[in-house]
């Protein structure tokens, strides 16, 4: 848990997952699933460029390989 953040009560988490509001996945898993589903769609944009989900995953993999 991040310092200074309040954790959601377990009963809320269970209900939100059960009711389909949340998925039991990490942010990385959610982005990877979006990349598989929407590979050629724009994922992020800034004032200089935009990246598709596929390009975003390639950039992330490249950064991870040098760390």
Short description, anyone?
With 67 residues, the chain is mainly alpha-helical.
Describe the structure.
The protein has 67 residues and is mainly alpha-helical. It has helices spanning 10-18, 27-37, 53-66, and strands at residues 42-45, 50-52. Strands 1-2 form a two-stranded antiparallel sheet. A hairpin with a 4-residue loop joins strand 1 and strand 2 (50-52). Helix 2 crosses helix 3. The longest helix is centred in the C-terminal third of the chain and has 14 residues, at 53-66.
* Largest beta-sheet characterization: 2 strands, antiparallel
Output the radius of gyration.
Answer: 16 Å
The outline comes out as extended
- Low-confidence region ranges: none
Output the structural class.
mainly alpha
- Number of H/I helices: 3
**Helix amount, in percent?**
40-55%
Question: Which sequence of strands runs across the widest sheet?
Answer: 1-2
Distance between the termini: 23 Å
Strand and helix order:
HHEEH
Provide mean pLDDT, rounded. 90
Total strands: the figure is 2
Our estimate of the beta-strand percent is 5-15%
List the SSEs and their pairings.
Elements: H1 10-18, H2 27-37, E1 42-45, E2 50-52, H3 53-66
Antiparallel strand pairs: 1-2
List keywords for this structure.
single chain; 67 residues; extended; mainly alpha; two-stranded antiparallel ribbon
């Amino acid at each position: 848990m991040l310092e200074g953040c309040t954790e959601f009560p377990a009963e809320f988490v269970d209900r939100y997952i059960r009711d389909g509001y949340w998925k039991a996945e990490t942010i990385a898993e959610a982005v990877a699933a979006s990349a598989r589903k929407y590979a050629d769609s724009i994922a992020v944009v800034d004032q200089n460029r935009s990246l598709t989900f596929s390009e975003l995953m390639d950039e992330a993999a490249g950064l991870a390989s040098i760390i």
